[in-house]
Amino acid sequence: MKILIIEDDRSIAELERDYLIAAGFRCELAFDGESGLEKAMKGDYDLIIIDIMLPRLDGFSVCEELRKAKDVPVIFLSARSEDVDKIKGLGLGADDYIAKPFSPSEMVARVKAHTARYKALKSGGEKRSQELNIKGLTIDKDSRRVFAGKNEIILTVKEYDLLLFLLENPNIVFSKDRLFDRVWGMDAIGDSSTVTVHVQRVRDKLEKYTDEKFIETVWGAGYRFAR
To answer: What confidence tier does 127 reach under pLDDT thresholds 50, 70, 90?
Structure first.
């Protein structure tokens, strides 16, 4: 598996690279946002690690542009540890956020977890094509693609999983904790606050192409797919 590291501090980038290579990954490095984004868009990577404070183009902008075209797992690794930065990073489509200083072994563990889950999701599924059509929304389970009319809605792995889970369990209210356990897995790294961020991201993407309110908030209880 191949990892792209976008980090302007060469010593940190090389440390990340060395630990990942020791764990069996192949790695490429980029030392500024523009060259990192160019590599990310042109290359075929299994995961991308992005620092936030980058020259030429900051990490948030790199992630935002990347998410318009690809659903590869993204981990932010940054000295900016404030909650607002974590929420913004997740809101832009990142799958995880690690604050510096970090444990290299924890970083490797998170990379392994995300790449394994992504690989399993991409290679799994039914042999025959399965397509769901609900209120103008089309979900092709075989290719893991979502359409509103002729417009494809680009979702990350977790955004797609969340939407599909709610869609396949209509009118049932799920708490944030239960959604986190069911969609992310009980052994996932993180907490249920990421559910709120992902729900809002899915809503924003769906509402660009349709006026339907697919995911409802049940105040004090959780979320449900209205069907």
So the answer is: very low
* Alpha-carbon gap, residue 167 to 161, rounded angstroms: 10
> Looking only at Cα atoms, what is the longest distance across the chain?
52
Mean residue pLDDT of the chain comes to 88
Domain check: are 49 and 145 in the same one? no
- Count CB neighbours of 177 within 10 A: 12
Same domain, 51 and 111: yes
Cβ atoms of residues 73 and 161 within 8 Å: no
pTM across the whole model? 0.61
Residue 206, domain extent: 131-225
Residue 216: half-sphere exposure toward Cβ, Cα within 13 Å: 12
Decide: 41 and 62 in contact? Cβ < 8 Å.
Answer: no
